[in-house]
Description:
nine-stranded mixed β-sheet, 36% helix, 25% strand, three-stranded antiparallel β-sheet, single chain, alpha+beta, 333 residues
Amino acid sequence: MNQILVEDQVSLTIDNDEISSASNEIDSDPDPFELFVKNGLANIHEYSMEDSILRKSFFSSMGQNPELVKKTKIVAIHKNLNSSLSGKARAQSFRIFSKVVADKCGGDANVKYAWYGASRDEICEIVMHGFSWCLKAAGNRDCCRHSISLSPAKFSFDSVSSSAVDETGLRHLLLCRVILEKQEVVTADSNQFHPSSPEFDSGVDDLSAPRKYIVWSAYMNSHILPCYIISFEAPHLIGSKGLLEANTIKPRSPWMRFPTLISMLSRFLGPSDMASLNKQYRHFREKKISRPQLIQRVKEIAGNQLLAAVVNLYTNKNKELQVSSSTERPLCN
């Protein structure tokens, strides 16, 4: 038996050639990406070039932890379009500072990609309003921070361990572009909260083999630009050696966004059936039909046998991509 979920929490359970809706699961399982969509992020199409590059980069940068790679699955990737007024302003500010810094440094602003791990709510706040000076500490106390720490693109594992599991069992990482300029070493026990001299602009734990980039709070919203949110399932991490522990969240079914399902079905269905399929999904989005009605109409249009084949194709493709990604080099700097 295979089970696959499509966007908007439509659940299809395939057992032999019979497909039935899991309505109880639909009603009780919240949409984990509702906040992202409300904040203007765009879901990247599965199997697109952009999606493939990001997946390969994510898994390649976890290659030093093969057990974690095996047990990690990307569920969705969202792109920050910077469509709000504040988002446009931050993107414009980043471009301006990149140019100014490049001019100051002889043409190279030392712009890198870097990962930032946090809770889903904090990541949404960052996308909406930028990085904040205040953080919630133990006991729900507010505390101020003097810098933002990010992991280099080839060490996503470090940020994965800093991420938090949400109520749906997912973790989330921000992939950002960062203006680093000239760096200086900042030790873990340092109380430093600004560059030690005008010669330096940002910090790093090791100049020759950095595992941590440090951006001072004064520059956190001009020198860091959030670009993508990677949402994934992974085991909990415990201990200093990154030991793995079984996830205590209830098991989840494989996810398949409805646009992905439509794209895959378009390979097998004619124009008339595809038009009907798109029409039913549009009616569902407009709340003209219920989830169970959409499920039933998808079965009627595509047929149980074709849906079962598409589910298997999607599942096998995901497994192949994850295996190949774990052996390739990262594609972002």
